[in-house]
Design a protein that fits this description.
This protein is mainly beta. Helices cover 7% and strands 27% of the residues. The protein has one helix at 122-139; strands spanning 2-4, 13-19, 24-28, 38-40, 51-57, 64-65, 68-69, 71-76, 79-84, 90-95, 164-166, 181-185, 192-194, 207-209, 214-216, 231-233, 240-241, 255-257, 262-263. The strands form 6 sheets. It has a 5-stranded mixed beta sheet with strand order 11-12-14-16-18, with no helix packed on it. Strand 8 (71-76) and strand 9 form a beta hairpin. It is globular, with a radius of gyration of 19 Å.
Length: 271
């Protein structure tokens, strides 16, 4: 990654790069970055996992162009997969998921285990979850949903947005608290558009109901990052393409409904 900071980076900007377990290759908080400096970060990354780049700017003006000409560019296998600078408060990019293959060994976070897996710090995780929900809202015409109460309100905790449920870690009750997002219930709510790749950032999801909407496009492969998912209904939409093999990585999945769509091909053997 090539990263050039602007005039105010030292007291506004933070950046992190993590795998799907939350283990960070670099994590630079506000105060760590120098103003007007070029950074070059190079990592050797296994292809069988996904990686998340998060850039935050506390002033909400990105790193370009009000205070200098900051920018970033991400190369994966020698190909630029993301770039920018004028991103407002936050930019999130998911990288590498397209390289998943059913034949490769899986990362520990996707395998049943009694050991505790690394977790993303609560504040960082909540920022990523909120960003993922915002992208879902934008990609599916949220302004025209039948019920979008609370969504996009800057002062409203996303756990209180209509259809979003969070819980305290370790609490089996699905209560709306400042815990991780565990349920999304937006069935029959007028969603019209595509499911964004950022859905993969909601790593603690257990339950998703998106049926009876007008969702189009394909099922993103990043769904395979939802290792806690046990229930997903997306029937009664206009989803096309094939069922991604990455769904076979969801070892906790018990109930999936995809009928009444425009899917083609056979059910992958991995599912």
């Amino acid at each position: 990654m090539f990263f050039t900071t602007d005039d105010n980076a030292n007291h506004e900007t933070s950046a992190s790069f993590a795998d799907s377990n939350g283990a960070t290759s670099f994590d630079m908080q506000v105060g760590d970055l120098e103003n007007n400096k070029n950074y070059h970060v190079q990592e050797c990354l296994p292809k069988q996992s996904c990686y998340i780049l998060t850039l935050n700017d506390e002033a909400g003006d990105g790193i370009c162009c009000d205070h200098g000409t900051g920018s970033y560019s991400i190369l994966y296998d020698g190909v630029e997969v993301a770039s920018g600078g004028d991103f407002g408060s936050s930019a999130v990019h998911i990288i590498g998921c397209e390289s998943w293959s059913p034949s490769v060994s899986l990362q520990p976070s996707f395998q049943p285990s009694t050991s505790q897996t690394p977790t993303v710090p609560t504040g960082q995780r909540n920022d990523k979850e909120r960003e993922a929900l915002i992208q879902l809202f934008k990609a599916t015409g949220g302004e025209k949903w039948h019920n979008n109460r609370g969504w996009m309100e800057e002062t409203e905790l996303h756990c209180y947005w209509h259809g979003v449920h969070c819980n305290v870690e370790g609490d089996e009750e699905y209560e709306r608290t400042n815990g991780p997002v565990v349920r999304i219930e937006l069935e029959g709510n007028g969603l019209n558009g595509t499911i964004p790749s950022e859905i993969g950032l909601l790593s603690t999801l257990h339950f998703v109901t998106l049926q009876d909407n007008a969702i189009t496009g394909t099922i993103p492969s990043e769904v395979g990052m939802l290792s806690e998912l046990s229930y997903i209904h997306m029937n009664g939409n206009e989803i096309s393409g094939t069922i991604p093999t990455e769904i076979g990585k969801l070892y906790n999945l018990e109930d999936i409904s995809l009928e009444d769509n425009n899917l083609v091909g056979s059910i992958p053997s991995e599912v």
